[in-house]
């Protein structure tokens, strides 16, 4: 099983259908679980997906429309009932704190102290590895990006050339230099992986900033472009716009979701066709309970063989 993957729990927008539950997305990330926008029914969808309350370390809400948050009471009470012991951080728009407290304490239950609250505000905010940017929607809404820091890949041939071996390698990584040899002389940058989560918004600068260069973009495609005027009025994206964002931002794998109830599985080819007008990379029209791996790391310069283009191995 991939240590970095998206578990799709629900893919509908305002109204669930026979085949699509309200929103819900769990990003597995090196032992951490980021639960985005748990809509109504998320607790049951987690059971179907083989996900437990102990897999949740973060609850990230983009905004407080019901299809993005009405699953919070069940998730919170399940965390309490299952006696989850690790910290769970809740990230949400500060302007909706009243709604958060109503959801957090929606019914009588034996409460838990493991959940800490981290309201975000302003145009850009961050909590640990989570970056939040304000979007354009009738109510205040934020998109999120999970970003791994830039790392360094050690180059064995450079280490050998400088006679650095054994414990000295660790010292070089910790301190940045050994015997006058710097870390930069024996390593190369290793880009950190990233995932962006963009829901309920019109096109705006923040959408492109969140998506810039990500390995995996999970983005709403509520409507086809034939409903572009409706999408703009209600603060949503079309599949065509999702493809434009992916192409402009250099996204590696694109996941479409948050489909209007007017569309069924038979309409998925139309969504992909619209995306293809701009984006020629990998497209996944999400369905409930599917799993989407985060693409493997891009090869660094030293990993590209002579005569081989540095291309995305996932394409």
From TrEMBL:
Region Disordered: start-end pairs: 291-315
Residues noted as binding Zn(2+) 1 in the record, renumbered to the chain: 63, 65, 137, 200
Catalyzed reactions: Endonucleolytic cleavage of RNA, removing extra 3' nucleotides from tRNA precursor, generating 3' termini of tRNAs. A 3'-hydroxy group is left at the tRNA terminus and a 5'-phosphoryl group is left at the trailer molecule
Biased composition (Polar residues): 300-315
E.C. code: 3.1.26.11
Keyword terms: Endonuclease, Hydrolase, Metal-binding, Nuclease, tRNA processing, Zinc
Domain Metallo-beta-lactamase, first and last residues per copy: 20-108, 173-259
Active-site positions on this chain: 67 (proton acceptor)
EC class of the enzyme, as a word: hydrolase
Gene3D superfamilies membership: Ribonuclease Z/Hydroxyacylglutathione hydrolase-like (3.60.15.10)
Pfam family, one: Lactamase_B_2
InterPro entries named among the record's database cross-references: Metallo-B-lactamas (IPR001279), RibonucZ/Hydroxyglut_hydro (IPR036866), RNase_Z/BN (IPR013471)
Co-factor binding comment: Binds 2 Zn(2+) ions.
Cofactor(s), names only, from the UniProt record: Zn(2+)
GO molecular function terms attached to this record: 3'-tRNA processing endoribonuclease activity
Binding residues annotated for Zn(2+) 2, in chain numbering: 67-68, 200, 258
Entry's family note: Belongs to the RNase Z family.
Quaternary organization: Homodimer.
Function noted in UniProt: Zinc phosphodiesterase, which displays some tRNA 3'-processing endonuclease activity. Probably involved in tRNA maturation, by removing a 3'-trailer from precursor tRNA.
Protein name: Ribonuclease Z
Provenance organism: Nonomuraea salmonea
Lineage: Bacteria, Bacillati, Actinomycetota, Actinomycetes, Streptosporangiales
Gene: rnz
């Amino acid at each position: 099983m991939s240590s970095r993957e998206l578990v799709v729990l629900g893919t509908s927008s305002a109204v669930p259908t026979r085949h699509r539950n309200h929103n819900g997305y769990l990003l597995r990330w090196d032992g951490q679980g980021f639960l985005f926008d748990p809509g109504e029914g998320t607790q049951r969808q987690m059971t179907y997906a083989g996900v437990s309350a102990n897999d949740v370390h973060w609850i990230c809400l983009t905004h407080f429309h019901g299809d993005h948050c009405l699953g919070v009471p069940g998730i919170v009470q399940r965390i309490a009932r299952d006696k989850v012991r690790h910290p769970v951080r809740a990230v949400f728009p500060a302007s909706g704190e009243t709604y958060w407290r109503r959801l957090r304490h929606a019914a009588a239950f034996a409460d838990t102290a493991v959940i800490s609250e981290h309201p975000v505000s302003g145009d850009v905010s961050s909590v640990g590895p989570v970056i939040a940017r304000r979007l354009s929607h009738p109510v205040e809404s934020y998109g999120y990006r999970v970003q791994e820091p830039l790392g360094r890949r050690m180059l064995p041939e450079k280490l050998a050339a400088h006679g650095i071996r054994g414990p000295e390698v660790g010292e070089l990584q910790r301190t940045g230099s050994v015997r006058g040899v710097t870390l930069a002389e024996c390593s190369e940058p290793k880009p950190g992986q990233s995932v962006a989560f963009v829901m309920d918004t019109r096109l705006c600068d923040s959408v492109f900033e969140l998506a810039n260069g990500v390995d995996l973009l999970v983005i709403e495609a509520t409507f086809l472009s034939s409903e572009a005027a409706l999408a703009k009025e209600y603060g949503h994206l079309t599949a065509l716009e999702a493809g434009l964002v992916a192409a402009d931002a250099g996204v590696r794998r694109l996941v479409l979701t948050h489909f209007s109830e007017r569309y069924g599985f038979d309409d998925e080819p139309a969504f992909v066709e619209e995306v293809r007008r701009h984006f020629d990379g990998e497209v996944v029209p999400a369905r409930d309970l599917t799993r989407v791996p985060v693409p493997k790391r891009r090869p660094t310069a030293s990993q590209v063989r002579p005569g081989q283009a540095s291309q995305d191995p996932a394409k």
